[in-house]
Amino acid sequence: MGRIKKKGTSGAAKNYITRTRAVKKLQISLPDFRRLCIFKGIYPREPRNKKKVSKGSTAATTFYYTKDIQYLLHEPLLNKFREHKAVAKKIGRALGRGEVGDAKRLEKTHIPKVKLDHIIKERYPTFIDALRDLDDALSMLFLFANLPSSEYVPAKTIALCQRLCLEFEHYVIASHALRKSFLSIKGIYYQATIQGQDILWLVPYRFVQRTGGDIDFRIMGTFVEFYTTLLGFVNFRLYASVGLVYPPKFDAKSDEQGGELGAFQIEGRRITQGDESSAEDIEPQAITSAEAQAEVEKIVALAASTEQEQQETLADAVRTEDSNNDSIDTFEPTAADADVLPQPEASSAEAAALFAPFTFYLSRETPRAPLEFILKAFGSKRVGWDGSLGDGAFTTDESNPAITHQIVDRPVVANGSLPEPYVPETDNGGATVTKAQWPRSTMPGRTYVQPQWVWDCVNQGKLLRPDLYAPGAELPPHLSPWVKAKKGEYDPTIPLEQQELEGEAEAFEDEEDEADDDEEMNEAEQLITNGKKNGLEAIIDREDSVEVGEGMDVGGSESDSDEADEDEVTSARDFEGFESDAESDVSDGELARRQHQRELEAEAAGESVEPVVKSQKVKNAEIRKKADKKRKDEAEEKERQKMMLSRRKRKLMKRIEYGEDKRDKEAEGLRKKRRKLEKAKTAADAA
Amino acid sequence: MAIITRKRKAATREVPVDNFSDEELADGLLEGILSHSEDESGESQNEDEEESIGSSDIEGLSDEDEEDIDSDEIPSDSEEAVRKQIRDLSTSDKPLKKKTSGLTHEQDLNGDAEANDHLDSDDDDRPNYTVTTDANGNTRYIYKEIDPVYDSDESDAPETTNTIGNIPLKYYDNYPHIGYDINGKKIMRPAKGEALDALLDSIDLPKGWTGLTDPATGKPLQLSEEELDVLRRVTRNEIHEDGYDPYPEMITYFSGKEEIMPLSAAPEPKRRFVPSKHEAKRVMKIVKAIREGRIQPYKEPTGDEEQEEEQQFSYDVWADETPRPEHSMHIAAPKLPPPGYDQSYHPPAEYLPDKAEIAAWEEEDEEDREREYLPRNHEALRKVPGYDRFVKERFERSLDLYLAPRVRRNKLNIDPESLLPKLPNPDELKPFPSTCAAIFRGQEGRVRSVSIDSRGIYVASGGDDGYARIWEILTGRQVWNVKLSDEDAVDSVSWRPGKDAAVLAAAAGETIYLIVPFTILTPDVEQAGRDLLDAGWGYAATKPQTSGAITKEPPAKWSRPGTKLENKGVLVQATVRSTIKVVNWHRRGDYFATVSPRGQSSSVAIHTVSKHLTQLPFRRLKGLAQSAQFHPSKPIFFVATRNTIRSYDLAKQELVKIIQPGAKWISSFDVHPGGDNLIVGTYDKRLLWHDLDLSNKPYKTLRYHQEAIRAVAYHQGGLPLFADASDDGSLQIFHGKVVGDLMENATIVPLKVLRGHQVKSRLGVMDVQWHPREPWCVSAGADGTLRLWN
Predict the structure, then answer these.
(1) Domain presence at residue B505
(2) B427: closest chain A residue by CA
(3) CA B493 to CA B583: how far, in whole Å?
(4) Paired residues of B439 in beta bridges
(5) Within this chain, do residues B715 and B749 fall inside the same structural domain, yes or no?
(6) CATH number for position B491
(7) Between A261 and B54, whose confidence is greater?
(8) How confident is the model at residue A539 (pLDDT cuts 50, 70, 90)?
């Protein structure tokens, strides 16, 4: 006979450990434990059976995996923390004695420096692993790069974050890894694909961030400490992978003048300099002398014009070439029912070519940093901006003839209303050449667009019509490039008719007609405001009419509404499908019979049968009825099938259906809103 | 005071003026001073110093208060007085008037009465001793024993010395004395101030007079001007010596200054001349370390931290990367979902919330909100404001990363369609009853039981009114009836299977009636039925003789019901011990089983029609019998008790199987014509399908009724249908297909709910029976109607 096993000595009780016990086991303070957990990426677990783990109690407790904690026991950082504690004690003592010099010396020389290199290696055994985890790191560092320094956030950290972020941006530019970007209300999302990994990060708009309240910067600081190390090593590796020297040369002076990206000088590695492909990637060196710049501009203008010509003339040639190049051909299914296999999206070569032939000029009011980054990442080598936006522009001269596109984010003002700009007299005689300055005059041959054009072009991978994005024009909606409409979801990009359910539009029209009587429908806004209520009423109305008109079984609709409540009851009630089915059949038959009767009567009276002219409303009602009936039939069939499911599967089914219902409802709401808007628009157009 | 006295004495002694005799000076006063100073040298010295320094000239009168302050000296004073007294006694045996006067002169000067006292006492104490000679021939004073009475020591209360009484002293102003002492001697007037001054003036204090006695020499202590100055400085905490440097430069003696002469004469040891091997070893160690680069020369840490940080990322961490499979328990942090359309700064208009939605969003608690932002529209990029929750969201994300427990949840990536079972097309399931074709009215009270004859022409019913009725199935016309009982209801009716003869068994109360309904049947069928029933009479006539010996009461009495009933066609009646609830025929029609739940041991009875015989198969039945049925093809008999169904092999007379539907109270059950499946209806609203080959637990549990199920029935004529009747007033029709293949389970499909019966006093449909061939069924309702469904 084996020994009786004691409770809590094996299994889940051993596998999990509470946080308090973990802290005790590691013999460190709770903040140190937190730091350690953040550095090592250790997170609490949810045991499958809490009672088994915590000896019967079900109080809310944080559990860690025991093996994780055991693994922390061997962490070299743990010793560092202890050393730090000892030194902190000494410093405290010195300060208590008033020996400031001693404290300073201790702080300078004795405080152990925490290095996280080994943790990076440990947490991310391969580079790909590190890339996979870069989302949060980038978002956090970009946020910190935009924060003001405070007592919690030292200026040094911010400077480091800025440097790392800009270095990373440089890599993205050099490798043309940026794929998508999106202007949201939160900030600007960017997605880059680096070595096959999609990295999505969010950069805040440049405003002062609200940092009050319950934000603990010590926690954020710990994350930043880890992320800076991570991004530093990632940058090193990324730079090495495209043959660049890391760290790039940093020009502090340029940075002070707002150079940002321009403050870094990217250099190719000496060994690879002969290699053409890498040489191409290298940013053009900052040009300092004015003459050289003028020269370059000339060349560039020439190149641009020739390129354009070439593009025009060789358009068909290119097309034929296309078939022979290395890029993947797109396969398009010929029949609708076929499966669509996913194909890789735009390659870096395509990204590099998007804005390559253009020279951009950013007006003063545009956000320079994101535009510069995104334009350069998509191939534009020449981005100039107003001098007030900072250092490092290709040109600060708005009238530069090389500029092909100017990005403008200002309302249009009538030409005459503007005062003449003050033109300073120059020393070398006469009036200077009047500069072409938007909005007073436009340069011929130059495209003026709003910033959104850049983003929409990038997301669609092609140049869009700039007239839609002209200054002052009402912009088309800016859509997220990551949303792939699934079945049943609302998709704003395709017309309404393609996605609405059968009979939905007709139902909408009916209810609109009803609403028309008492409401002015011309104003879209008013529509929007009371749209919801109307919609609800309309739904109720519709149900009523169905019941009255068709003599639908009340029990059926009841069962629908009660559906969610109870399993047993529903199952008891659900099951009566055929009855209502049969009865509705009867009523349909009845209608036909009446029609026939009418015809007969007419015949008997010797009159010609008057074809029943169906009004719009009646037609709508018919379509709707048909759709309703079809839907109802389907639902009944489904209910019947559901009855035969096991309890477990039925619950699963219920969960799935909950999600689907929610999705459907959402989509329906959106469709309704859109329909209203469209109607209001057509009405306005007609007027 | 004593000290002062001493001082004075010392001083006076020093004074060359010779008021007193030399002997006087010699005899003991000085001694006393000496001894005294020895005793209390510390104190007195301090005092002396203080006095001498604090006030260089001495005021005798002022000393009064000093005495008061120095109260601790009082005992010593008195002690000294006693000693002095003794000494006086010992030294002067002769009355020294002169001395006394001298002393008084001096002591009165101090205003001290004590001295007088002593002197007086000297006089008094004269007879204190006797003078003898000692062994050496010297005089020896033998003192009297001192009687230690209260008054023996009179130091505390001074005696009155002046005896003049209470008269004003001015009376003596003209006299040189002021009164008389106790002995009648004049007390001379003490010296007045002028005299004292004169005296003091006469005394010329020498320079440096301190009034102290040098204890070493016994001479008066003279202090020079310098010494006094030093004292003064010391008292003022000053440096007592001019030009004294309290902090002189330290002169380092013993600092390696080589002495000329060695301390030891030993020769220098060799080790002083030989380099240390140990040191060489250690140096070599360091040299080696430096050579190997283990020790770097110390560099002043430069303030350039950036350089350091750049150094930080100066190598490739992933230089030798080896993929490591993730730990199975590791769950990577989920990425944040990409933004949707509604997060756009310029979303499609339909994504913008209307006023109601905005209000609802604002009203909601921040934690309950489905999304933490409201979609907003900005016409231009320049109008987009900062997002004020940015830092907070980032912070929350970091909290999630390290604080949130991660659980792997399986995403429901299942096509819901795949979950749904493949059901046969409803068209394939047809035919099944769906509408009420006929309603058979005419009964009073509930209809308890219904049965359709094997040819499918007649429906028999029995109800609370005690009638057994027969109806034509197609028309719903009542063709025959008979009142079987006045008080008991007809609980069960059942047609005998088989087309050759039509016999109806009806149970009312404890009696079963076997009926061949009169006039409605074709003559040959009727005759066959009569023959069948009559056959038993003969058997019964012969049988009783053989078993008559057994006195035991037979389980049932078979008899003729009487002419009135016989005319109607009720031919045989058999009475058992308790009320019969269920009658079921064997497939051959020779046996039928009855169940009377109250009957205990006689609850289940099997009757043989051909022999008019009743048998009780169970001596004792566990549980309350509910129903019993024969297997459709095998000699197996099923008995349902309250919560189990047992099957017995009648041939072998043994228990075959116990089926446990898991129900609380079985109401009825039916056996599938194939014999391998059972349906069980229960009062706890469940309908259970049992596959006997599969398990003794139900294969399917169907709960579609809201009230108890009263009856269940399989279609016996080859259609895969079954029905149940419930107290909620509905019948439910199911498709239940049993395939011969053992590998395939039965398919059960719910088909139809038939409503029509009214619920009366919480009873709905009491019984249901299928037509032997057609997909029709007849139900008996508590509302007194029968309904035919097709």
Answers:
(1) yes
(2) A578
(3) 7
(4) B787
(5) yes
(6) 2.130.10.10
(7) A261
(8) very low
Q: Are residues B654 and B609 in the same domain?
A: no
Find, among A232, A579, A170, A333, the residue nearest to B730 by Cα.
A579
Report the CATH number of the A289-323+346-414+434-483 domain: 3.40.50.10190
Residues B514 and B613 in one domain: yes
Query: A485 — contact with chain B (CB < 8 Å)?
Result: no
Domain co-membership, B633 together with B613? no
- ipTM, 2 decimals? 0.76
Question: Is the residue at B496 inside a domain?
Answer: yes
Q: How far apart are CA B620 and CA A234, in angstroms?
A: 86
pLDDT of A503 above 80: no
Query: A552-561, B190-199, B207-216, B413-422: which has the minimum mean pLDDT?
Result: A552-561
Closest CA to B570 of B515, B501, B648, B613: B515
Does residue B632 share a domain with residue B610? Answer: no
Task: Write the CA distances from A320 to A314, A315, A323, B106, integer angstroms.
Answer: 10, 9, 6, 152
Q: At A349, list the tokens.
A: 């070569």
Does one domain contain both B605 and B753? no
Asked if residues A297 and A400 have their Cβ atoms less than 8 Å apart, the reply is yes
pLDDT, residue B600, reads 77
Determine whether the interchain pair A126/B323 forms a contact, defined as Cβ–Cβ distance below 8 Å.
yes
Within a domain: B297: no
- Give B449's strand partners: B462
| Same domain (yes/no): B741, B776 | yes
CB nearest to B394's CB, from A139, A156, A233: A139
Whether B44 is covered by a domain: the verdict is no
The full length of chain A comes to 687
Q: Tell me, letter by letter, the H, E, C secondary structure of A331-387.
A: CCCCCCCCCCCCCCCCCHHHHHHCCCCCEEEECCCCCHHHHHHHHHHCCCCEEEECH
Question: Which DSSP string do the residues of A135-150 spell out, in sequence order?
Answer: HHHHHHHHHHHTSPP-
Contacts of A670 in chain B (CB under 8 A): 350-351
Tokens for B77, please give them.
Answer: 């004073």
Phi, psi of A620 (to 5 degrees): -55, -45
Q: Which of A524, A578, A652 sits opposite B426 (nearest CB)?
A: A578
First vs last Cα of chain A: how many Å apart? 95
Question: Torsion over CA of A620, A623, A625 and A626, rounded to 10 degrees?
Answer: 180
Residue A533 in this model has a pLDDT that exceeds 60: no
Question: What are the φ/ψ torsions at residue B436 (nearest 5 degrees)?
Answer: -85, 115
Q: Which candidate, A525, A521, A579, places its Cα nearest to that of A554?
A: A579
Contact B704 A211 (CB under 8 A): no
Cα B490 from Cα B182, distance rounded (Å): 157
Number of domains in chain B: 2
Give residue B580's domain range.
480-539+554-621
Distance between CA atoms of residues A650 and B246, nearest Å:
103
Helix pair A368-377, A155-175: axis angle to 10 deg: 30
Which of B573, B601, B621 corresponds to the end of one domain? B621
pLDDT tens digits, A434-468: 455 666 677 788 889 999 999 999 998 888 988 88
Rounded mean pLDDT, A603-623 = 70
Best mutation target, B395, B410, B428, B751, to test chain A (most A CBs within 10 A):
B395
Q: Which residues of chain A does CATH 3.40.50.10190 include?
A: 289-323+346-414+434-483
The SS3 assignment for B667 reads strand
Q: Is A529 on the interface with B (CB under 8 A)?
A: yes
Burial level of B785, CB count in 10 A (0-12/13-18/19+)?
buried
Instruction: Write a three-state SS string for B268-331.
Output: CCHHHCCCCHHHHHHHHHHHHHHHHCCCCCCCCCCCCHHHHHHHHCCCCCCCCCCCCCCCCCCC
Predicted TM-score of the model (pTM): 0.55
Identify whether residues B590 and B698 lie together within a single domain. Answer: no
At residue A436, the pLDDT reads 54
Cis bond upstream, residue B431 (ω within 30): yes
